[in-house]
Write a structure and sequence with these properties.
alpha/beta, D-Maltodextrin-Binding Protein, domain 2, 3 domains, 8-stranded mixed sheet, 9 helices, about 25% strand
């Protein structure tokens, strides 16, 4: 059964005249007749009965008409949806973003991308690093914005977007308030509020332990807001990325000596073909002029 056979049959149903139906379909009458005869052969019975200048639907024709109309409608709908998708009209894109990545660096990019690709519907999903990697490999998300200290491996393609340094968060009145940066040595003896989902947590711990600096772990949570609120209330200090939004009252200084930075990457699955929407997003992200990261002061200084 071919689509032109269905169209020809439905045209005859509308006109009840083979000649007018052929004109509507822009084919010759013999071609239209042969197509309908072939359709009848495939369905196993007559669909139309011709009587002089008029035609009538047989019982089989009346039974099949709504089914064939539905097939034609669904086919046209599928074609329209595909065309819209390929033209980036109502084209979906699922973007995975780690919860530790702040939105400030993305506002200008997302605004520019939406302006140029208004038909792309971006759905953002937040999750920890390990879960986003799983969702990316499973095809649940199309693109991920991630950071990790280790190489990405062969299964993933990663393109760098920008860098940011890590900062120390603390309450007003803390001795860090007088410093321009906080060297690792200044962490000695502090009460530490740990962000469980920080993908650089073990990396920072290794640097601290190599420097011989010890801290007291007093609270750990997956909830970033809890950690920040407790730090702002003076219950301890925390370490957070430079562009992570902070709660009112929390002060920050860059972590230094050594400074710790992370690269934010756009990650896709190696070898996986992009949909038009994903392709447009990847090209836009790679060509976007991401702002340079803020410069970390070379030495810790005092405001006093």
């Amino acid at each position: 059964m071919e689509m032109h056979q269905i169209r020809y049959f439905l045209a005859v149903c509308e006109t009840m005249n083979f000649t007018r139906a052929a004109e509507l379909c822009n084919v010759t009458q013999p071609a239209l007749t042969r197509a309908i005869q072939k359709l009848e052969e495939e369905l196993g019975g007559l669909l139309l009965r011709r009587e002089r200048h008029l035609s009538h639907l047989t019982d089989l024709g009346q039974l099949m008409r709504p089914h064939l109309e539905n097939i034609l409608h669904q086919t046209e709908s599928a074609r329209s949806t595909a065309n819209s998708f390929l033209r980036l009209e109502r084209a979906p894109l699922t973007l995975g973003v780690m919860g530790t990545i702040g939105p400030m660096r993305f506002v200008e990019f997302i605004n520019e991308f939406h302006h140029r690709n208004a038909g792309v519907e971006v759905c953002m999903q937040q999750a920890p690093l390990a879960r986003l990697r799983e969702l990316l490999l499973e095809g649940v998300i199309d693109v991920a914005v991630l950071a990790q200290p280790e190489p990405w491996g062969e299964r993933l393609d990663a393109a760098p977007l920008y860098e940011e340094h890590f900062t120390v968060g603390f309450a007003p009145g803390h001795r860090y308030e007088r410093l321009a940066t906080v060297p690792f040595a200044e962490l000695e003896g502090e009460s530490y509020l740990s962000r469980s989902n920080c993908e650089f947590r073990e990396h920072i711990r290794a640097i601290r332990e190599a420097a011989g600096v010890s801290m007291r772990y007093c609270f750990r949570s997956e909830d970033e807001d809890w950690i920040q609120v407790l730090a702002a209330a003076g219950l301890g200090i925390c370490v957070l990325p430079q562009y992570k939004p902070t709660v009112p009252g929390l002060l920050t200084r860059p972590l230094a000596a050594p400074a710790v930075t992370r690269t934010i990457w756009m990650v896709t699955v190696a070898g996986r073909r992009f949909s038009p929407a994903v392709g447009a997003f990847v090209r836009a992200a790679r060509s976007f002029a991401w702002p340079a990261r803020a410069t970390v002061p070379a030495t810790a200084g005092s405001d006093a």
